[in-house]
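Exercise 7b. Backbone tokens:
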């Protein structure tokens, strides 16, 4: 596990967007694992710029998003379908709809759809590069504390901490869905390369606990210690605190 301080969100986002573009240029059928949330917004902005600047053909790029809220249709403003559309997919016509995968949050049997999603990852994978944020409670995807390390894509209950953290994107905390469909920890671990981004004071505790090294389900991100190829990009705010506490 490599910890890299790229000083701020902008520089880290530029760097990771560049890595993704290099990957697509060298492997046009790259399989990307995509994440949402506030952490990723600038990364997608730079990615769009670089995709257009390099006139990339994205037809063969395959994407799998980590999660979606249960109950939100793809058209819902707060859905992660819409997040991806507005921040990435709508800016380039060469994205191939057949290759873009985001778990469905609506439908008669979400468990069956989740199972099919997992099958699709197995069929198209392995994921070459998996993007991750980290929750204040140490979750990755919507794999909340206590999640089994063997978990696969399925319906999950969100914890009060996550509902509170994500309420910034909703008018009212009561509007935040209480469930989601999320890739599991085992699904995430199947990726060849994992890139986790964490910025700002709110993420200090989660990153600090992660680097302390204990591998336990009460900190879902700690499973990443068992993966051979993980980069963790942080900013000065997090890195300086880690340094002060002798964690790096
Ligand atoms: P955030 O969410 O990027 O909105 O902070 C990250 C996460 O909860 O995984």
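Sequence design result:
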């Amino acid at each position: 596990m490599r910890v890299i301080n790229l000083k701020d969100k902008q520089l880290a986002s530029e760097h990771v967007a560049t890595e993704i573009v290099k990957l697509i240029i060298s492997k046009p059928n790259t399989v990307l694992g995509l994440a949402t949330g506030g952490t990723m917004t600038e990364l997608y902005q730079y990615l769009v710029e670089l995709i257009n600047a390099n006139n990339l053909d994205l037809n063969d790029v395959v994407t799998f998003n980590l999660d979606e809220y249960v109950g939100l249709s793809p058209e819902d403003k707060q859905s992660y379908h819409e997040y991806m559309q507005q921040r990435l997919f709508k800016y380039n016509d060469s994205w191939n709809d057949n290759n873009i995968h985001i778990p469905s949050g609506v439908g008669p049997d979400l468990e069956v759809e989740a199972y099919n999603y997992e099958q699709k990852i197995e069929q198209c994978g392995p994921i070459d590069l998996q993007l991750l944020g980290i929750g204040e409670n140490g979750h990755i995807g919507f794999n909340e504390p206590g999640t089994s390390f063997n978990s696969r894509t399925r319906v999950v209950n969100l914890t009060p901490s996550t509902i509170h953290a994500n309420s910034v994107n909703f008018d009212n905390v009561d509007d935040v869905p209480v469930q989601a469909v999320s890739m599991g920890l085992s699904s995430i671990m199947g990726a060849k390369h994992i890139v986790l981004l964490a910025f700002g004071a709110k993420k200090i505790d989660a990153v600090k606990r992660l680097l302390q090294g204990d591998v336990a389900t009460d900190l879902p991100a700690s499973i990443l210690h068992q993966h051979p190829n993980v980069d963790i990009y942080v900013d000065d705010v997090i890195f300086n605190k880690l340094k002060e506490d002798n964690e790096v």
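Instructor comment: The first helix runs from residue 9 to 26. The helical segments are 9-26, 41-53, 80-87, 110-124, 160-166, 185-189, 204-212, 236-244.
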